[in-house]
Amino acid sequence: MADWTDAEKSTISAVWGQVDINEVGPLALGRVLIVYPWTQRYFGSFGDVSTAAAIMGNPKVAAHGKVVCGALDKAVKNMGNILATYKSLSETHANKLFVDPENFRVLADVLTIVIAAKFGAAFTPEIQATWQKFMKVVVAAMSSRYF
Amino acid sequence: MSLSAKDKANVKAIWGKILPKSDEIGEQALSRMLTAYPQTKTYFSHWADLSPGSGPVKNHGGIIMGAIGKAVGLMDDLVGGLSALSDRHAFNLRVDPGNFKILSHNILVTLAIHFPSDFTPEVHIAVDKFLAALSAALADKYR
Where is the signal peptide (chain B) (predicted)? Predict the structure, then answer.
């Protein structure tokens, strides 16, 4: 789906290698639910999401954040084949979960912000550019089975 | 999506922390935008150097962030307060308003880096809403 230089591949691996899915996943998903409250529509069964504190303390949100973030691991390990890697996940989100693909873009941007907060200035503009290219490809692959 | 009293208070509070580093934050946000979204370079083809931290980027980043800082004081009437700037972007610069969202995202990334503990989800939503309202006001005169 996209061409990756060796430098880009090693940047993505290096960034991902420093991300603790169990920490970043819940932070990112929680932040999406707070900053874009209409996304809560997909999580009716998750219990109390009425306040920012409730969301960040909600164990189902945390668990699901780990699942979603964990799925990125597949893309990092299959960078030459991200489209195929997410084919069935894309189908599931399109045909069973009925998730608006705009949400993939939203989550990608919020995840980038959470990672930036963790890494600080080490998340240079060049590293951000490479990471966002990766996010763009992941989002495109997740959107690919919608039509 | 109009700004609540709480949003305005959160924006004013974080801007108190942004002000002393406003030029630096502006430069970094602009650098990030030009690097991660290379299509935005098309608006700056008249600059000799578009690399992160270059003279023109430093200068212009400071100008942009300064203007946004002024808009914090105009939150109760962004359309009125930004009218002249809107004319400029619409008729002189002719910047596609889609780019306002891109710059906003890079401002948020820069704020997350500079204020990892102050940039809470509540502050994030307030700043995101403020930048969106500002972008709409900046686009107000386009057509």
Answer: none
Give one DSSP letter per residue of B19-71, joined into a string.
GGGHHHHHHHHHHHHHHH-GGGGGGGTT-S--STT-HHHHHHHHHHHHHHHHH
DSSP state, B1?
-
What residues of B are in contact with residue A119 (Cβ under 8 Å)? 113
Strand, helix or coil at A101? Answer: coil
- Rounded to 10 deg, the angle between the B121-138 and B55-72 helix axes is 100
Q: What is the pLDDT along chain B (143 residues), one digit of tens a residue?
A: 899 999 999 999 999 999 999 999 999 999 999 999 999 999 999 999 999 989 999 999 999 999 999 999 999 999 999 999 999 999 999 999 999 999 999 999 999 999 999 999 999 999 999 999 999 999 999 99
- pTM value is 0.94
Q: Do B36 and A129 touch (CB under 8 A)?
A: yes
Residue A2: what are its φ and ψ, rounded to 5°? -140, 160
Say whether B35 and A126 touch across the interface (CB within 8 A): yes
ipTM for the complex?
A: 0.91
Is there a contact between A29 and A99 (Cβ–Cβ < 8 Å)?
A: no
Contact B125 A34 (CB under 8 A): yes
Residues of chain A with Cβ-Cβ distance to B34 below 8 Å are: 125
Under a CB-based contact definition with an 8 Å cutoff, are residues B22 and B28 in contact? no
The three-point CA angle B104-A8-A92 to 5° equals 70
* Alpha-helical regions (H) of A18-58: 21-35, 52-57
